[in-house]
Amino acid sequence: MAYISIARKWRPQTLTDVVGQPLVTQAISNAIKNKTLHPVYLLTGTRGVGKTTLARIIAKSINCEALQGTNPCLKCDTCVMIQEGRYADLYEIDAASRTKVEDTREILDQVSYLPQMGKKKVYLIDEVHMLSQHSFNALLKTLEEPPEHVQFILATTEPQKIPTTIKSRCIHFNLKPIGTADIASQVQKILEAEQIKFETEATHLIAEHAKGSMRDALTLLEQCISLSPSDINTVQVQSLINTIPNELIINLLTHIHAQDAQAIEQACAQHEQNNINFESLLSNIANELYKITIAQLTKSSKHPLSNLWDPGYIQVLYRMAIIGLNDLPFSPTPKIGASMCLMRMAVFTPELETKKKALS
Question: What is the pTM of this model?
C-alpha cells in the first residue's frame, strides 16, 4: 500500500472533524440540516486553514447516499470516491493555471448538463483571484442564476483581488488562522493515535511555528517523525525549526540588565557561529519581555526576571526590540544589527536622559 502523508491521512472528513473554525462549520451545518445551502460559497483565509478541505466536505454532504445528520457517512461509494479524488461530479479547478477566458468558458459550458452520478455537480475553483477580468465576467453570468443541480465553491488567499460583483453573489466565510492551542491539541491527538511518544512542549513548539496553519503544522510533524519515528521531543523540534533555547534569551536579558556590552557581543558572535537566526533572536527577546510584563501586571504567573525592571521600563525595552527587528534588513549584517539593538537596550537609561534634558 502506498504511503499516505500525515496531512492527507488526518485531513478532516466531516464538519465535526474540522479544527478551529466553529462559526463556519456551524453555519454550514445549519444550511445542510435545513437544506438551505447557498449556490455559491466564497471561502477565504491564509494557507492551511481548511478551505479546500471544507469544500470537499460540503461536496460529500450534498451527494452522500446515507447522510448522518449533517455529516457524510464516509462509507458510501460517493464519499469514498470524493475522498480518493475520483468523483465524476466534483470538479476541482486550479484558477492559477487556467486564467484565460477560454478556459473558463470551457468549464462553464458543462454547467448546464445534469450530474453524472450524484445529486449535484460541485465546482471548486481554487485561488479564484487568479482569474482574468474577462474570466470573471464570464463566471458572473453563471453565478447570477446558477442551475439548481450545481454548487459553486470559490476559494482564495487574496479576497481583495476578487471583483465586488462576484463577491455580491456569494456567501463569504473567512477562515481564521487556527489557534496555537487547537493546533497543539490536534498534533497530540494524532501522535496518540499513531502511538508515538511526545513531549507536550514539543507539540506547542510545532503549533507556534505553524502560525495558524494546520497543514504547516502537520508537515513539520511529519519531518519530526521522519527523524525520530518513535519519540517527538523538544530538543529535536528546536533543532529542526532552528528555535532558540529559552535559556539563551534569559541570559541575554540578564546581560542587558547588567549593561554588559562585552557579554552581549560575545553571545551574538557565538550565535552567529551556531547559525542562529537573528530575526528570531530579537523576536524571542520581545516575546520574553511580553511574558515578563504579563507576570508583573497580572500576577497570574511567575517569571525569573520579573524583579529586574519596572513595567514602564520594560515597555521601552520592548519597543527597542521591535524597532531593532524592523531595522534588521538595513543593517550591515544581521549579527551587527541584533548586537547593536541589544547593546542599545543595555546602555539606555531613561533617568539619565531625563537629567540631560533638564540640564539643557
Answer: 0.77
